[in-house]
Amino acid sequence: MTWLITGGAGYIGAHVARVMAGAGERVVALDDLTAGVPARLSADVPLTEGSTLDAGVLKRVFAEHEVTGVVHLAARKQVGESVAQPTRYYRENVGGLATLLEAVAEAGIGRFVFSSSAAVYGNPDVDLITEDTPCAPVNPYGETKLAGEWLVRAAGRAHGISTVCLRYFNVAGAAAPELADTGVFNIVPMVFDRLTRDEAPRIFGDDYPTPDGTCVRDYIHVADLAEAHLAAARRLGQDAGTGDLTVNIGRGEGVSVRELVTLIGEITGDARPAVVEGRRPGDAPRAVASAALAERELGWTARRGVRETVESAWQGWLLHHGGRAADRTTTGRTTG
Ligand SMILES: NC(=O)c1ccc[n+]([C@@H]2O[C@H](COP(=O)([O-])OP(=O)(O)OC[C@H]3O[C@@H](n4cnc5c(N)ncnc54)[C@H](O)[C@@H]3O)[C@@H](O)[C@H]2O)c1
């Protein structure tokens, strides 16, 4: 089998490529390099620069590498940007997926893994989110992921493609510092960014109905997430032509923002107190996965804890954002 990883030069895609290639799968990557970094990919993973919106390049890559399965991660992923530019998000995330699925069907490829997100659920008021929790996304990004799932399942049924949709919860960390997320869109890099600027971390709201009043999330190490893709690919490898599966990918354990900020303080050696600001619109008090279905259907569970996740993220931050943070960490540890 040969797997095409779209968005393969991205943060998660490069981890998926590394895990799948390391497990002996043949892997090739496609990325338009709008956010991707080719150096994240090892020499045994050929990269084609191109877009999922370009049917010609897809056809060429499928033929050239005799692709038999696709792991589709290429997408725009910023919630705020999706609110400001909804048509772009629908065109690129949903339109790109439609073009890709047409090319997949035409090439007779029978296996497809789709990067979905916990954003499809919106803000459900439940202790653990199961795959049966109703989907009600609260921003265009989440809508494109939900519409994407519908499209994947419908195309799968119409064209005999076996599909798996993976709904990721809060992804963080890095398998190696050079693979780290360089963007500052999620809470872990946002806190690192504040500390690097010599500013206190911010907590948005401490009056939620949670044990310490701050929002609770499910943080998953990107290396565990990559292993979930391998498990999904292996399942499809055995069962091509037998339907669809949609699963949560999380640890099934909640960590509050305050707990996370405290942990980051310990790991960075900069434990300055956080400042509490008002709630941000749209933040759910709690979003924690039920991880039971992934274990049952994929034989996969997360192996890495939150401390390991944050430590690896910090090593990546030091590599990419360098000097000043590194100096202060040393100081913090020495004086701490
Ligand atoms: N990072 C998270 O916390 C998170 C959570 C849930 C879901 N996801 C999903 O996981 C996937 C990967 O996210 P990431 O964090 O690695 O983001 P990323 O931006 O690092 O990776 C996306 C990659 O896709 C490429 N790309 C974007 N549009 C493309 C297109 N039309 N054609 C070809 N390449 C294209 C970009 O250049 C980039 O390399 C996305 O689908 C995202 O929505 C991410």
From TrEMBL:
<dbReference type="Pfam" id="PF01370">
    <property type="entry name" value="Epimerase"/>
</dbReference>
<keyword id="KW-0413">Isomerase</keyword>
<dbReference type="GO" id="GO:0003978">
    <property type="term" value="F:UDP-glucose 4-epimerase activity"/>
</dbReference>
<comment type="pathway">
    <text>Carbohydrate metabolism; galactose metabolism.</text>
</comment>
<keyword id="KW-0119">Carbohydrate metabolism</keyword>
<comment type="similarity">
    <text>Belongs to the NAD(P)-dependent epimerase/dehydratase family.</text>
</comment>
<dbReference type="InterPro" id="IPR001509">
    <property type="entry name" value="Epimerase_deHydtase"/>
</dbReference>
<protein>
    <recommendedName>
        <fullName>UDP-glucose 4-epimerase</fullName>
        <ecNumber>5.1.3.2</ecNumber>
    </recommendedName>
</protein>
<feature type="domain" description="NAD-dependent epimerase/dehydratase">
    <location>
        <begin position="3"/>
        <end position="250"/>
    </location>
</feature>
<dbReference type="InterPro" id="IPR036291">
    <property type="entry name" value="NAD(P)-bd_dom_sf"/>
</dbReference>
<keyword id="KW-0520">NAD</keyword>
<dbReference type="InterPro" id="IPR005886">
    <property type="entry name" value="UDP_G4E"/>
</dbReference>
